[in-house]
Write a structure and sequence with these properties.
CATH architecture: Orthogonal Bundle
Shape: globular
CATH class: Mainly Alpha
Subcellular location: Cell membrane
Number of strands: 0
CATH superfamily: ABC transporter involved in vitamin B12 uptake, BtuC
GO biological process, one term: siderophore-iron import into cell
Largest sheet: none
Structural class: mainly alpha
Radius of gyration: 20 Å
Number of helices: 14
Low-confidence stretches: none
Number of domains: 1
Membrane topology: Multi-pass membrane protein
Family: Belongs to the binding-protein-dependent transport system permease family. FecCD subfamily.
Order of helices and strands: HHHHHHHHHHHHHH
CATH topology: ABC transporter involved in vitamin B12 uptake, BtuC
Pfam families: FecCD
Mean pLDDT: 86
Oligomer: single chain
Length: 328
């Protein structure tokens, strides 16, 4: 475990350095070293590129990736479904619908309103899914089915607004929905970091509860767990974590599905081990996606959400193929 974490940390450091060095204006490793260390020989333009543009971007990518991976780990355990991710709770569709409403129906909304709308939309949709699934208690199957239904409804509303909205407004919304960290700044990084500290810490402290609920409601109750309370708290934490990531970077898909599966394959089923490995894996995925999106067709850029989709779609197909003989 220690060796694996060490490897992942060194991989992450390499990605950070590569993200700082490569882009529209590539820096040599010597220039990067001089810039980071504050050498008198450092070029002022390089200082601005590294500290004002690229460093906030890579830090935001790391936070978003770790948050999505942590939320995905919670969703997989609570739903007891290998294909579950935070989007099953309606987080993505709720955020998309809310942002589309703000951009299309309001006249020149302030940029700061979009993340707030995305977060509130995610929270509202998750609350609706949970309340509608309550029948003297909850079950993972009801939550998944109602989540799929409400997500489809929100998706239809988003499509309707995009059909009749002004083309400029719709394009602006599509850029946000594609998922990107291009508008990162240190203030946004600090806000997301301080927001995530408590819910992510609580999630990691709840590893034993997730280990129990993963075995099923009856087994968990027989071991003394208050299943409905634990499920509700875990869904709340998942919403707070994933909703904040969506608000900061838009819809960066599949990270919450891919990272927890990779982590469980590497360290086994214990959530105390899965959480740190999944967080590092998710951070690496989003940082890599952002780096690839910046350099593959430079100076044009691909949003990180598109790149993660290109990675996640084959992985999703692999999961389905691996379960083709599983009993329904």
């Amino acid at each position: 475990m220690t060796r694996l974490l060490t490897v992942l940390i060194f991989l992450l450091i390499g990605l950070i350095l590569a993200s700082l060095a490569f882009g529209d204006i590539p820096l040599s490793w010597r220039e990067l070293f001089e810039t980071i260390t504050g050498s008198p020989e450092a070029n002022l333009q390089n200082v601005m590129i590294v500290f004002d543009l690229r460093l906030p971007r890579v830090l935001l990518a790391l936070l978003v990736g770790a948050a999505l991976a942590t939320a995905g780990t919670i969703a997989l355990a609570v739903m007891r479904n290998p294909l579950a991710e935070p989007g099953v709770l309606g987080i993505n569709s709720g955020a998309a619908a809310a942002v589309m409403v703000v951009i299309v129906l309001l006249q020149d909304p302030p940029a700061a309103l979009l993340p707030a709308a995305g977060f509130l939309g995610a929270v509202a949709m998750t609350a609706a899914v949970y309340l509608l699934s309550w029948r003297g208690g909850t079950s993972s199957l009801r939550i998944i089915l109602i989540g799929i239904g409400l997500s489809s409804l929100a998706g239809a509303a988003t499509t309707l607004l995009s059909t009749f909205g002004e083309i400029g407004d719709v394009q602006r919304a599509m850029i946000w929905l594609a998922g990107s960290v291009y508008d990162a700044n240190i203030l946004k990084v600090r806000l997301l970091f301080f927001w995530l500290i408590i819910p992510m810490a609580l999630a990691w402290m709840s590893s034993r509860e997730l280990d129990l609920i993963r075995f099923g409601d009856n087994s968990a109750r027989s071991l003394g767990q208050r299943v409905d309370l634990v499920r509700g708290v875990m869904i709340l934490l998942c919403t707070l974590i994933s909703g904040a990531a969506v608000a900061a970077a838009g819809l960066v898909g599949f990270v919450g599905l891919v990272a927890p599966h990779i982590a469980s394959r590497l360290v086994g089923p214990s959530h105390a081990r899965i959480f740190p490995v999944a967080a590092l894996t998710g951070a690496s995925l989003v940082a890599s996606a952002d780096l690839v999106g910046r350099v593959i067709i430079a100076p044009a850029q691909l949003p990180a959400g598109i790149v993660t989709g290109l990675i996640g779609a084959p992985f999703f197909a692999y999961l389905l193929w691996g379960r083709r003989h599983a009993r329904e």
